[in-house]
Amino acid sequence: MGGGVKYWEEAREGLLVHEDRRVVYLNPKAAQLLGVEREKVLGKPLLLALRDHRLEALALFGGERVLEVRGRWLSVRALPGALYLLDETEERTRRLGLEEAAQVLAHEFRTPLAGILSLLEALTPRGPEEEAVLAHLKAEARRLARLVEDLSLEGRRPGRVFDLEELWPRLQALLRERLQGRAVLYEAKGEVRADPDAVFQALLNLLDNALKYGQDPVRVVSFREEGRLHLEVRDQGPPLEAYEPLFLPGHRGFQGGLGRGLGLYLVRRLSGTWGGGAYALRREGENAFGVYFPLDWKKEA
C-alpha cells in the first residue's frame, strides 16, 4: 500500500485488505466497525475478522451492499483484495427522522391549505388585473397542495405527457426578481411523462441553488442518454469537493453556503415519483445538478 498506509490509518472509512482469504491489513476504523483488535486478526483467516458470512461473501466475490452488522448500518463495497466500510448509522437515523417529520408536516399543512383554496375560490375579482392575480394565487396554492402530497407519499405517481419547455414561463414568473441581471439560458425541451408540478418544484430547487451559489452563465439543458431524458441545471462555479452528499438530509456546505441540503433531498424524493432519479457531477467544466426521466412510456404509447 506504500505511502497510502498513513492516510488509511487516519481515514474515517474502514479498509480491510486480504489475500488468499487471510487479513493483510485493516485500519483502525475497520477494526472499530468490525469490533475486533487488529493485532489479533492480522494474518488470520478472513472470517475471523469479519465474523459475518455476508461480509465474507462480498469480500470474496465482490459487490456493494448496505448491511446491519453488530448494531450498525454499514455501506460495504468490495473490490479485488479490499473491503471498504462506511458507517451510515447516524445518516440512516437522521433520514428516518426526516421522513417522520415530512409525514407530520404534510398532515399539518393539509387542513390550512384546503382552507386557503376554499377562500380563494370564494373570492370574486373586480377586474382583469385582480382576476389574473387570483388565478396565479390559486395555481400556487394548488402547487403547494401537490407538494404536500409529494412529501407524504412514496413510490411512482401518475402524471401526464408534457414538454419541458412549458416550465420556463412559470419559472420566470416565480423567480422574476432573482433572474434580473443574471445570465440564465433555458435550453430544455423534450416530452416526458410525469406530474408537471413535481417536475416544476424539482427544477425550481435546482435553479434556485444555482442562482444562490453558482456562477453565470447558468444553463438549463436537456439531452437523451441510454433510454432516459436528462434535465440539468449547469453553472460555471468551481469544482466541488463532493457531490453525492449534497442530496443527503442535514448535509451542510453547498458550494460554500450554509444550506441544510433539504432542497436537493426533496429533488431526489420528487424524482422518484415519476420513476426517475437525481444526481450531481462535474461535466465539461461545469457543475451539473440534474434529474432524469425514463422514456419507456413511449413504447407503451
UniProtKB/TrEMBL annotation:
It is a multi-pass membrane protein. Its EC number is 2.7.13.3. It comes from Thermus filiformis. It comes from the Bacteria. CDD domains: HisKA, PAS. InterPro entries: BphY/WalK/GraS-like (IPR050351), HATPase_C_sf (IPR036890), HATPase_dom (IPR003594), His_kinase_dom (IPR005467), HisK_dim/P_dom (IPR003661), HisK_dim/P_sf (IPR036097), PAS (IPR000014), PAS-like_dom_sf (IPR035965). It is found in: Membrane. GO terms for biological process: osmosensory signaling via phosphorelay pathway. Keywords: ATP-binding, Kinase, Membrane, Nucleotide-binding, Transferase, Transmembrane, Transmembrane helix, Two-component regulatory system. Residues 15-50 form the PAS domain. Residues 104-297 form the Histidine kinase domain. This is histidine kinase. PANTHER family: SENSOR HISTIDINE KINASE GLRK, TWO-COMPONENT HISTIDINE KINASE. It is an enzyme of class 2 (transferase). The keyword Transferase applies. The keyword Transmembrane helix applies. GO terms for cellular component: membrane.
